[in-house]
Amino acid sequence: MSRRARLLLLAAAGLVVAGFFAAACLRLPAFGAAVHPYGERAVAAALGQRTANTVSSVNFDQRAFDTLGEESILYASVLSAVLLLRLARDERKHEPRPAPVLPSTRLFGAVLLPVTLLTGGYVVAHGQLSPGGGFQGGVVLASGLHLAYVAADYRALGRVRPLAVLDVADALAAGAFSVLGLVGLVAGAAFLQNTLPLGTFNTLASGGLVPVVNAVVGVEVASGVIVLLAQFLDQAVEVVER
């Protein structure tokens, strides 16, 4: 296909998308309107499933199948980075040289590391009750672990970062999301439908399937981000002429 033909095809597709987008915008409620049909239905469904955090109810219950796709994209990205950045046959890996760290930086990192990990765990565990959840808490957990790199050096990070275990945890958590979807099918309902006992509203055990899926996502995001950053941090490449 010639360049001109590709541009014409792109322009035609753009016009179609623009037309549908304009038609959708014209049917939106007026700015500042008091009618919010989607929000009202989402809140009602969250309360009906005893999930205090409506956002988590939407992500892990009402449109859990969409969230499964988002998690799969993250897993595929991490897997692709690992494959692309792995050592080639003619590459060698050397131990990094330690660099001096200011005492204030070392103290700052040492104090904040356990606090950040605790905060990340709290955000994941309370995702169905308060703002946050598996995605946000997973990123906090991964970021907190890398304070060991800031406070000490790369070797210290390597000692507190079991990559082999995290690789397995990432894969198992990504697969567990799909397996949890089978709970609904076993119960005679739809895939990923919330069929577990709903528990008492506004408690850690409330929400049925929501806290379970939320925890699985937290493990997958935390493990995936740590593994992804490990691949990039290992790429301090020095080319030697032969």
Automatic annotation (TrEMBL):
InterPro entries: CPA3_antiporter_subunitB, MnhB. Residues 107-226 form the Na+/H+ antiporter MnhB subunit-related protein domain. Pfam families: MnhB (PF04039). GO terms for cellular component: plasma membrane. Keywords: Cell membrane, Membrane, Transmembrane, Transmembrane helix. It is a multi-pass membrane protein. It is found in: Cell membrane. The chain crosses the membrane at residues 72-88, 108-127, 133-152, 164-192, 212-233. Its main location: membrane. It comes from the Bacteria. Belongs to the CPA3 antiporters (TC 2.A.63) subunit B family. This is Sodium:proton antiporter.
